[in-house]
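Chapter review: from sequence to fold.
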Amino acid sequence: MADSSSPVLHGVVVEETLHFTLVELCRACRVQQEQLIVLVEEGVLQPQGDDPQTWVFAGPSLRRARAALRLSNDLQLNAAGTALVMDLLDEIESLRARLNRIGGR
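The token string follows.
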């Protein structure tokens, strides 16, 4: 029997094969293009294409963009600071995966 007082969570599953244009990613993140362009310039996001009009972002870019924007807002980081934190988080994730592969924790 379900508890009717429990909050209902809604989410969207983003597949690896899904792709976003810059405009679509901006809509999904609810930000202006300039904010995502700066994240691309800092290396946080890596689209395919030569310029913003032709950029295509892979599905996982949505989660990464949202995480970077949240960090930037919550910690009041500039773009370079956000890029540094994202790099450090990537490194932590990589080290944890490596540790799990060798039988640690």
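Two observations follow directly from the output. Residues 79-101 form the longest helix (23 residues). Residues 19-101 form a domain with the Multidrug-efflux Transporter Regulator; Chain: A; Domain 2 fold (CATH 1.10.1660.10).
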